[in-house]
Amino acid sequence: MSSNAEVKKRNNWFGTMLSYAKGSGGRLAVSVIFSMISLCAGLVPFFCVYRILDLYISGMLDGTGITKWSLIAAGMYLLKIVCFGISTGISHYVAFNVLEGMRLKVADLFLRAPLGEVYSHSIGEIKGIIVDKIEDIEPPLAHVVPEGAGHILLPIISFIALAIIDIRMALAALAAFPFGLIFMILTFVISGKNMTKYQEANAHMSSVIVEYVEGIEVIKAFGKSGVSYEKFAGSIKSYRDFVIKWLESTWFTMKMAFAFMPATLLGMVPISVYLVSKGDITVSQMALGVMLAMSMVVSMAKLEIFSNGLRQMEYTVNEIQKLFDMKLLSEPEKESKPKSYTIEMKNVHFTYDPEEGEVLHGIDLVLKEGSFTALVGPSGGGKSTVAKLIARFWDVSEGSIKIGGIDIRDMKITSLADLVSFVTQDNFLFSCSIMENIRLGKPGATDEEVKQAARAACCEEFILKLPDGYNTSAGEAGKRLSGGERQRIAIARMMLKNAPIIILDEATAFTDPENETKLQESIANLTKGKTLLVIAHRLSTIKNADNIVLLNDGRIEASGDQEKLLAGSPLYQRMWQAHIGARNWAAGNVKEA
What is the DSSP string of 139-154? Predict the structure, then answer.
């Protein structure tokens, strides 16, 4: 995007924000109108007081006059309250629609972005955007916009009314305004230089806090002397020092702006007294003028506060928009459907970071429909990368990956997700019941179907021991479940999904030996006729694979069945011997030299 286009987009930040209002943005104009009516209605009681005072001075005040003008004042005050309530109700409705739209947009973008793009943002930063920054938009949008519009109109009407009484009174009411405006501009200039630094410091502190909480177990084990604690304490201290220094830099100009901006009476009172003494205006007109000037005080003070909120909202929207402009995985307008589930990788090259070099160097691999393919090799050889590229967590740097002859880049991301089940050794349970965690594999599944999948994954025995069985919250159960139990829940989820392509990345790594055999049998029965790719370090679990592919340093070093690799691959032979030795090893049978 060109720099001019970026500038134009930043300048249109308000329209960009309202585009997430799900069609309710037009209601904001209605909210503004009701806000203006509310504030204008609030001026009428001043006129009523003026009329009562005028009648009293002229000796014409009676019970009827008092009743008439008091009822008008009460009625207009009631109108002010009702209109204000309607205005804020509508503006809050729009604001929360905007917040919902923006949060859903972030969630959707993360689903359609390469994992590398997602991982480039820390958890603290993402939490800060989704929870804090987007939430920060609500108060100014719900209050600043409608009320701010009314508070702009009210001083204008008050100025016109003062001018009708006497133009000198109107000008006197604004005598201190230029001084306040100068100090306010100076405050914005000084503050603006530090706004970006403030946001960065806030995001950094949030990120470090999240990191600290996630690593609390390690910190408790090693004490406060650890790097993580020092980093946590240091970020909070740095943030405190920065904010204090920032506030000190704007303290004088901000206080002077607050002193002069609303000081309408500074020029108003002496001028109005002078005009009364000259006989140019009456005492009741002076009283009305003072009341109108005081109404301008409230509006100018509000505008001063609102202007800062508006700047904060503009900055926040532009910062969030940078996230919205992240690179996404391409999707076709019209997709092609694969007719088979054979996976073909052709000359696949891939790099996570160009500065660190390639991870995969020209991979050519065919996984036939219904076949069982195993990826083995030393750590860091590229096995998990191959699996994640097939699931399109990233796009290949060069080459292609096809399913049934269709390039996965020519398929919708959701369509590809329907075809592939992916289970890793690091499995995440959402904060909902165990039942719903498993049901994620097939949202429309019945309770009985969920339970059947749980039984097939050897889960039911430990699930029934939980306080509420299948209805136990995973957040609560997560503290009780072992890594192997969480892994089996993820496998149950995969079994329930019943996708035609299954990728298992060390899916039984944490499973105890007692359940591993049962689990392997269940997976074998489930995956019959499916395209199965398994990444494993325990070679005994994949010795019956149709094709074992040995990856080393991002290249296919050898492939074939177990017998072929044992006969022809020195690396595989060493890996097999190491695996067999590890299985037979026990601490008690190590003899002393």
Answer: HIIIIIHHHHHHHHHH
CA-closest candidate to residue 477, choices 508, 435, 420 = 435
The pLDDT confidence band at residue 1, using thresholds 50, 70 and 90, is very low
Which amino acid, 321?
A: Q
- The per-residue pLDDT for range 122-153, each reduced to its tens digit, is 776 777 778 777 888 888 888 888 888 888 88
Alpha carbon distance 14, 8 (integer Å) = 12
Four-point Cα dihedral 485, 487, 492, 497, nearest 10: 160
In this structure, are residues 561 and 542 in contact, taking their beta carbons and an 8 Å threshold? no
In this structure, the number of other CB atoms found within 10 A of the CB of residue 569 comes to 19
Find how far residue 67's CA is from the centre of its chain.
57
pLDDT in tens, 342-401: 999 999 999 988 778 888 999 999 999 988 898 988 888 888 889 989 988 888 999 999
Q: Please list, in sequence order, all residues whose beta carbon lies within 8 angstroms of the beta carbon of residue 16, skipping any fewer than 6 positions away.
A: 9, 317, 321
pLDDT in tens, 248-282: 777 787 778 777 766 677 777 888 888 888 888 88
Contact of 228 with 218, CB cutoff 8 Å: yes
420 pairs with which residues across the strands?
501
Q: Please check whether residue 42 is in contact with residue 77, taking contact to mean a CB–CB distance below 8 angstroms.
A: yes
Residue 344 to residues 298, 389, 408, 418, 459: CA-CA distances in angstroms?
A: 71, 12, 10, 18, 34
DSSP letter for 591, please: P
| Rounded distance between C-alpha atoms, residue 554 and residue 539, angstroms | 19
Alpha helices in 325-403 (DSSP H): 383-390
Q: For the chain, what is the radius of gyration of the CA atoms?
A: 35
The full length of the chain comes to 593
Residue 112 has φ and ψ, to the nearest 5°, of -105, 0
Adjacent-strand bridge partners of 552: 555
Q: How far apart are CA 535 and CA 527, in angstroms?
A: 15
Alpha carbons within 13 A on the beta-carbon side of 268: 27
